Amino acid sequence: MDFTNIAFYIFAALTVGSAGVMVFHRNVVYSAVGLLFAFFGVAGIYVLLAADFIAIVQILIYVGGILILLLFGVMLSQKLTKVDVRTESMQLVPAVVVVGGVLAVLLLTISSTPWKLAGSLEYEPTTKAIGRLMMTEYLIPFEIASVLLLAALIGAAYIARKN
Amino acid sequence: MPVLNANLTLQAAQFANLPETLQTILFMVLGAAIFAGAAAVLALVGVYLERKISAHMQDRVGPMEVNTEIPVLKNIGHGWAQTLADALKLLIKEDIVPAEADKKLHLMAPFIVFAATLAGFSVLPFGPGLVASDLNVGLFYIIAISSFVVIGIILAGWSSNNKWSLLGAMRSAAQIVSFEIPASLALLVVIMAVGSLNLGDIVAAQAGGIHKWLIWWYPPFNILAFFVFFVASLAELNRAPFDMPEAESEIVAGFHTEYSGMKWAMFFLAEYANMFLVGVIIATLFLGGWTSPFGDFLNSGPFPVFWVTLKAFIVIFVQIWLRWTLPRVRVDQLMYTSWKVLTPFAFVAMVGAGIWMML
Amino acid sequence: MEVGLNHYLALAAILFSLGLFAVVTKKNAVTVLMGVELILNAANINFVAFARFIDTDLDGQIIAVFVIVTAAAAAAVALAIVLNLYERLKSINLDEADSLAG
Amino acid sequence: MITNAILILLLPLAAFVVQISFGKRLPRKGDWLSTGAMFIALFMALSILVDAISTYESNKVLAAQTWEWFSFGSVHVTFGIVIDNLTAFMLFVVTLISALVHLYSIGYMHGDPRYSRYFAYLGLFSFSMLGLVLVDNFLGIYVFWELVGLSSYLLIGFWFEKDSASNAGKKAFITNRIGDVGMFAAIMILFSTFGTFDFDGVFAGVAAGGLSDGWLTAAGILLFFGAIGKSAQFPLHVWLPDAMEGPTPVSALIHAATMVAAGVYMVGRTFVLYSADALFFIAVIGTITAFMAATIAIVQKDIKRVLAYSTISQLGYMMVGLGTGGYTAGLMHLTTHAMFKALLFLGSGSVIHAVHSQEMDDMGGLRKKMPITFWTFLIATLALSGVPPLSGFFSKDAILASALEYGMRHSGQMWIFVIMLLSAGITAFYMFRLVYMTFFGEPADKKKYDHAHESPLTMTLPLMILAVFSIGTFSWGWFEHLISKPSLAAYGAVAAVAEHGGGHDDVAHTAHTIAMISSIVVALSGILLATTVYYWKKISAETWGSRLKPLYNLLWNKYYFDELYAATIISGTLWKSRFLAMFDLRVIDGVVNGVGRLTAGLSNVSGKVDLRVVDGLVNLVGRIVAYAGARLRTLQTGNVQSYLLMALFAVIILFVIQQF
């Protein structure tokens, strides 16, 4: 068992464990902390998948952006200093059944599909190649994504402001 | 594991006999320990500098007088023991946790802040090959990892269950997130110029003396980027004149109002370690990193470490100087600075340097 | 056992299910959003894993970047909606936002 | 050279960006910056022109470069720059006039509240026009075409506080759009046929016979629609006179020298594309335009409007030149006309600046007060009238020769030449009418006359420079050598594709001689007539005006074009709306009311039945539905999460079904 495998299990355990905390903890802020470590774990998984650029983007956007937004959301929508920010659950039993079913379906599909594995497993820096692809083959999606971001920015600012 | 490969240069003989996995892990642990120690020491030096420089600038009495009764050391004078006294005070102070606080998060927050700062150190190059982790996305990594600091601050503010703390935390988070934009844009100028995110490559591109430093490239755009980054980094460090999050006159001490003792010291150390981190980044990106300003002269042996440290401390000196010279700005002025001054200028620098490059 | 594609896919599936569980059961809108982010992360792991093991070019990674970008936009808009919800209902519990109930 | 070209292109853009962002904060509001940028561009353009002339090879491509712009699927859209002799000339003309107009505007626009924005717009226009000249493909030319239109709109409506100015801007923009639709359709025809926007690619495709004759003619005529709009040809010429609401230097730059010539340039650039039929269409439109505008110009009283109609008329000349196969003649007239028409506009601007009025009735006798303006203006007038040896003579003569040659080769088409010759005489007449009314005779308004003075050096210097270029830098021989008619053969056409136009044979020679003599005669008689009427006053203009009252009114009202459009398009829409409203009120309402009354009667009857029989049934059904609804409504919780749960459950069921 070499280091890569150990690292995978460490990161996988971190991810799943923190995701579990996120899902099952009753305090929203603890959920956010769980999500923080889950994001971190996923970034580690990306590194193991030779996607260094994506890993950094993951941390930059999710931790530096989305998570902070979420925390702001929690704090702006509660009484300012009320530690007790609980979240309740509902329809627990049907959810367990259905989500368990979905998980079973997914795992069955994964294990029964004969994947066509291919290619070398080299580790290469991806940043330059991704940048090049963004500016050539994926230029139009790239531009559309920027327009989307602008629209989201304006839309969010408009929706959130007080009338 | 080439991506996480720790290529610390100290290679002891018995190390080579251990299994490779164990070696890697040992390297990592050792590296982390070294950096934690180094960061703590550097932070102490930073604290000392801050004390002394402020005392000189504002004729403060205390830091010039602290002394001891031990005979040999008694008459050195000039308040040499100030840092020692500070450290001792912090260590023996009572660790107060507010009754209504969220204990776990209250404990966790300073660690997140400190760990994030420390993690940033791992990609800084202190000499040829002298870098803990030679990431090819190093610069980007630093930007990303510093966002953990924001999370730590928000958690600290929230878990203290105190409105000053929470307000300070929110201010701090908003401030850091806003200033990350001009800072990152300014960094893009450097990235475009060198064509690499690897800090080692960036230093290598500036080898050969003071006139090759990136700050002189594409004038005046790189100088502009340098200033934008410097100002934005001041704000990201929550330092004066942008220290709204801990504005005593408005919100007591901001997010660390409810912290004391060692936990407070962690924030304190993290702040000074962060100053050093920014110093090294600025030195690396704009001021030639570990290369000597005199070309090949004094550019080998221990000198690279000396040069980068010297440059970093010069930057730190300017930061301290500004803190004790400038008054604090208002919150709206702060946001104005970020969105309406620095961001446009960063764009100008980026576009200008880009056009310059194309010509 | 050598870690391969199936491991990553299984991890993604578990993450997906956890996210889904949060989305389905949580009353707090912000927690639901967190669940959505988990789901997107799971999808991204799949993309990157496929990019690594099946199709060795970078298409999967690029799509992952776009997913992250879209997630950021979605989070911003969703939080704006949550804040608006709070303005109107003084609560962000989704079971109270049921004015469409039959 | 490519770098030079890119710099020429980017300098005005940079000036625009800087001016629009911080123009107001710069010293002197940044006029030096825009002007300096344009002069640097001018010197670069000059170096390219010198290169082109010193190489002295026909239609030589001096430099070309293409970059890939974007691609989707298998379509790769490129963006490139091509510099041949034509481009070199156009670059020079555009940068020269733009730079001089910048310089002139420093004096003319002095003290305007939006001074820096004015220069920013000028920069934007220069950038767009230079881009239009430089690009090597249809998409690019279309993009810059629209940009030019935009900046023209901004500048016409520059004094948007005046309703007339903002309306004129809108009119220009909308009228242009009508033509642009045709141009766009033409580009799409070419693109869908050949899969490329490149000039070379399209021409090679045409040469290979990729388009049937009918489609080719259609594409040519549609493409020419764009030129009709932009070059103010009949019937879309109505916007140009109104565009005189803009500042006068703008009129000189955009609405006399460069933008309106863009249509001519575009037709010249894509010349090989046009079939014989399309060229005939162009010639006819050009003839109508030239004659119509020249006649209108006779009666106008506003100095700028006279020049505007003169511009339309001269653009018609260029189109006739191109349409009758006189490729070189048309483009040469473009170049010479740019010089002297810009000079005329700037001169009129100088006059307007001095007397603060555009009405010629307010002027008169300004010869002594404004000597520099007068002499330069006179040179330009002589050039426009076609008096040898000034530049206008050569180019106009060449167009007439080309028209005559066309008439000699195609039976029944001599009328083009005759009308054009007549228009040349009219041109000389109205131009000298303008000169006499403005500069000679007694001052009509003594107060304004006393107040008038020569303009400052920044305004007169451009006049003098342009006067030098109007005198006769261009002579026929070397211009024809540098920019000679391109042929499809260069793009590998098969021999069967007919060549249009003539060559250097006897017919051409004869035509040239006749045209030259007759044009001189006509021009001189036009001048003579004008002198008789307006200088010696042997013939009274008023008497003849009232004697030919219907004709005079027709011309004074510009052939009622604006009224025609108002009557057809605008009131047509109004009439249709009114008709629909009436229809609604009378017919539909009547029907509805009738139906309503009928229904009321029927209801009365059925109500009785209803109450007894139907209600019982309905209530029964209702009760059943209510019961079922009460059971089912629990599914509709209003909670998204439970819907999601149901959907997921369905997914599992589908999976299970699929498995077995």
What's the gist of this structure?
Chain A has about 160 residues and is mainly alpha-helical. Chain A is about 75% helix and about 0% strand.
In words, what does this structure look like?
Chain A is built from six helices and no strands. Chain A has 163 residues and is mainly alpha-helical. In chain A, helix 1 packs antiparallel against helix 2. The termini of chain A are far apart. Chain C has a domain of 64 residues. Chain C is elongated and about 50 Å long. The model of chain C has no long low-confidence stretch (mean pLDDT 84). In chain D, strand 1 and strand 2 form a beta hairpin. Classes of the chains: A mainly alpha (163), B mainly alpha (359), C mainly alpha (102), D mainly alpha (660). Chains in contact: A-B, A-C, A-D, C-D. At the A-C interface, helix 1, helix 2, helix 3, helix 4 and helix 5 of A face helix 1, helix 2 and helix 3 of C.
Would you report the number of β strands of chain A?
0
CATH homologous superfamily caption of the largest domain in chain A: NADH-ubiquinone/plastoquinone oxidoreductase chain 6, subunit NuoJ
Rg result of chain C? 17 Å
Q: Tell me, rounded to a whole number, the average pLDDT of chain A.
A: 82
- C-alpha Rg of chain A (nearest Å): 20 Å
Q: How many helices of chain A?
A: 6
Number of DSSP helices of chain C?
3
Order of helices and strands of chain C: HHH
* Model regions low in confidence, pLDDT < 50 over at least 5 residues of chain A: none
How is the biggest beta sheet of chain C arranged?
A: none
Output the CATH class name of the largest domain in chain A.
Mainly Alpha
- H/E series of chain A: HHHHHH
Main beta-sheet strand count, sense and barrel state of chain A? none
Question: Largest interface: which pair?
Answer: A-C, 83 and 71 residues
Poorly predicted sequence stretches spanning 5 or more consecutive residues of chain C: none
Given the C-alpha coordinates, what overall shape of chain A results? globular
Give the count of structural domains of chain A: 2
Overall average residue pLDDT of chain C: 84
Descriptors:
heterotetramer, A: 163 residues, mainly alpha, Four Helix Bundle (Hemerythrin (Met), subunit A), 2 domains, 6 helices, 74% helix, B: 359 residues, 13 helices, 0% strand, disordered N terminus
Secondary-structure blueprint:
The complex is a heterotetramer of chains A (163), B (359), C (102) and D (660).
Chain A: H1 3-24, H2 28-48, H3 52-76, H4 92-112, H5 127-135, H6 139-160
Chain B: H1 20-58, H2 62-65, H3 82-92, H4 103-121, H5 138-145, H6 147-159, H7 163-194, H8 199-204, H9 221-236, H10 248-251, H11 261-286, H12 303-323, H13 331-358
Helix pairs in contact in B: 1-11, 1-12, 3-11, 4-6, 4-11, 6-7, 7-9, 7-13, 9-13, 11-12
Chain C: H1 5-25, H2 29-53, H3 59-89
Helix pairs in contact in C: 1-2, 2-3
